[in-house]
Every structure is written in structure tokens, then in C-alpha cells.
Give the backbone structure.
Amino acid sequence: MTERQLIYGNMGMVITFGLFLFLSFVTAEADATQDVMILISEIVGSITLISAIVSLFYIKSTQRYLPIANLCFLVPWILYAIGFELGFDETTNYSWIWFIGLYLLLITGFIFLRISYRRIEGYFKLLPVFLLFINGIFFVYLIFIHIWWSIPFI
């Protein structure tokens, strides 16, 4: 595959993952449908992760930061998916370790997404901006959930 095909493949895969991720949030009221959307999101996310890792070896120009941006976007979502599949909730012991791991991954991802924005050329620069925005929303969501789980209920 050429470098351009790898770049377009990475963009397409991360956009597809984002769409299925959005659909999994939209279908939150129908449990069976949401479970299917989450499963599809996890499959597309793992394929996107593999595609980004493979692209790191074959892209030699400064566009190499596009798969790096994809990886910085996907890694916190993968940790969140692992926690979702393991059944983490407010009754889980030591859930703060999971939150600290997610916070560290998200902050590191923010830094690398900004670096990749500066290095990517052309109209591909828009991808790290959108990924940064989506991870920012995810960060605020995690802070809200962390605070909500920490509130002592009577």
C-alpha cells in the first residue's frame, strides 16, 4: 500500500470508529441495541488500533503523526472499554486507580494530539482537532462520573 492509502485508511477507520461510538451513546435506552453497537465499536476500534500501529512502520514522512494521533485518541477509549467490559461501577473497590489511569492517558493524549497537529500537513490537520475535541468531552464525562461516584449517598 502507498503512504497516501495508509493515511486515508487511518482517517476512514477512526471516523468509522467515531460514528459507531456516537451510535452506541445514542442507543443508550435500548439495552440490546446498545450492546450490539458497543461490540461493533470495540471491533472497529481494535481494527483501527492495528491499522495505526501498522501504519507507523510504513509511513516515513511527517504525516506519520496521523497514526500517532489515532493511537493517542484510541488508547483511553480502549481502557474505558476494558473497564466497561469488566463491569466497573461505583461499588467497585479501587476504582480510583482506573480513573487515574484514564486521566493520565487522556492528558498524555492531549499533549501528543497538539504535537501531531503542528506536524501534520494539509487538510489532514483537521483530524487531530476533532479527536482532541472528542477526548475533551470524554475527559469532562469522566470527571463528572468520578465526582458522582464519590458522593456519599445515605
Remarks:
- The mean pLDDT is 88.
- The radius of gyration is 17 Å.
- Residues 3-150 form one domain.
- Residues 48 and 80 are 16 Å apart (CA to CA).
